[in-house]
Every structure is written in C-alpha cells, then in structure tokens.
C-alpha cells in the first residue's frame, strides 16, 4: 500500500489499474516465495502458515483492487449523491442533475480509457475491439447469461 | 490447508447461490440480489468450514476471525465484479462496439448518452434505497453510498488523483 501511494504521488502511471496487480499480488507473492525457498521463514512459520498469510493478503488486495476503479474514475452515482446532499435545498430534480453533468465527459473519457488500455483501436470506420477486449466481453456475457440477466445498462 | 481451499473457492459458492437467487427472485433489484447472495452464501461456506476444519481446532476464535476477513474481502470483490457487469460505462461501451462490430465515437455517444447515464443511475439509486423521490425531486435517504463517496474523495486526494480522467 505504501509503495502504491508513493508511486502515485510521484507520477500516476498511465495504466494505473493494471499496475495494481504486480504491486499488490505479484510482488508480495514473489517476496514470500523467495523468503520460503531461501529458508528465512523456517524458524518462524511453516509453508502452510505462509499460504495462510498470503491468502489473507490476497483477499484484502483483491478487495482494494476491486474498489480502485471507483476511486480512479469518478462514479456518476456517488457524484449524484454528493451533489444532492450539498445542494442548498438538499434536493434536486433530474433536469438539474443532468445540467450539472452536462459538461462532463462521462462517455468520451471512458472511450479514452479503453484506448489507453489497448482494449479498443481506431479503424477506418470507427472503433473495434482488440482480442483481449473480446475475451473480456465474452466473460461478462457468459456471466450475465448464467445469472439469467441481460447485459448491464451501464 | 482445508480452510484455505474452502475460502479460496468460496466465490464459486457465492456464484452458485447468486445464480439460484437471480433466477428465482427476478423482481429484486440486481445489486440487492448480489449483496444478499454474498450474505446467504456464508451459510454453506461457514458450514463447510465448521465440519471440515473448525470443529476440531484449538484456537477457534482467531481462525473464525481470519475466515471472516477473507470471506468478507472475497464477497466484497465478488459484489464489485457483479456491479461492474451491471453498471460500468467501459463494459457497456465494449458491449456496444462488440454488438455493432465497429462503432465511431459519435455512434457510441448516440447509443449511450450522458442523459441516459443519469436517468439509469437515478432509477437504480431509488431502487436500492439510496435516494427517495417525490416524483420531481430527489433526496438522499440511504447513507452508505454517501459516506463511501466522501471516503473516495479523501482517497483520491491521498493518491493525487485529480480531475475526472485520472
């Protein structure tokens, strides 16, 4: 976590969400594996204990990584709540809320994100999905079908 | 080791419970059903942990705390994964491009407009009890997401994330 905060405060990486996996998942795993193989941990914990320690770290890390997109890209839902609560009357109409969001790039900013992460590329007639994006869409489509739900409304 | 395996595969149990719940109770708002599935799956996961491991352990309380933290974190992650499939703008854009084969930026914004994004979220926030509406105006009623929003602002400041497109 400290490494994550330090790196982000120096310069936010271009594909910041992706970099959380090496920082939170791979580096600690590598560290523990090396410590176990070299024998540093022999007198203190067993291999099973190390697995238990890593599982706890892995679970907490996944929870943080899952939360990060909401921190990184401003969530319209959370913004709606904050806008209403901070309004003079403590209430707002749908028209007022839409006006408040009128200047925000709610869709085009996410298109830029998808380009940064190489999930879409610009062809002659428009954007197309890369191979990894097709895989992601198939996973989510299959997941929604298992639940008996149509694709999300966004 | 059994405890670790049960915990590691607990999201599979959550998924199975969620599949049953989503198909049986179609009128329940999707995010509420996902949340309830995570809670409901604690029963089979807890039972498996008890019968296969915890009942013969000496330090039960510390192990139960450990299991609770791991399961809670994985359940939270599962909820976010479902929430991404339901609400994420990026996933929605990928779906639309996949469906069309090829879409220009104007095509994407025509299919998925800012006004639609706000309307969809207002409906969702009312369904999940975060907002109440008198037909014209919306007020904040639930506090959980509201306080989550404040914590996110604090965390964004700590990470030096500024503006919309960080």
Outline the structure in words.
The complex is a heterodimer of chains A (154) and B (166). By secondary structure, chain A is mostly helical. Helix content of chain A is 66%, strand content 5%. Chain A contains seven helices and three strands. Chain A has a two-stranded antiparallel sheet. In chain A, helix 2 packs antiparallel against helix 3. The longest helix of chain A is centred in the middle third of the chain and has 26 residues, at 47-72. With 166 residues, chain B is mainly alpha-helical. Chain B is 72% helix and 4% strand. Chain B has helices at residues 2-8, 10-24, 30-40, 42-52, 60-87, 89-100, 105-111, 114-127, 144-158; strands at residues 131-133, 137-140. A two-stranded antiparallel sheet of chain B has the order 1-2. In chain B, strand 1 and strand 2 (137-140) form a beta hairpin. In chain B, helix 3 (30-40) packs antiparallel against helix 5 (60-87). Chain B is globular, with a radius of gyration of 20 Å.
Question: Keyphrases for this structure?
Answer:
heterodimer, A: 154 residues, mainly alpha, two-stranded antiparallel ribbon, 7 helices, 3 strands, B: two-stranded antiparallel ribbon, 9 helices, 2 strands, 72% helix, globular
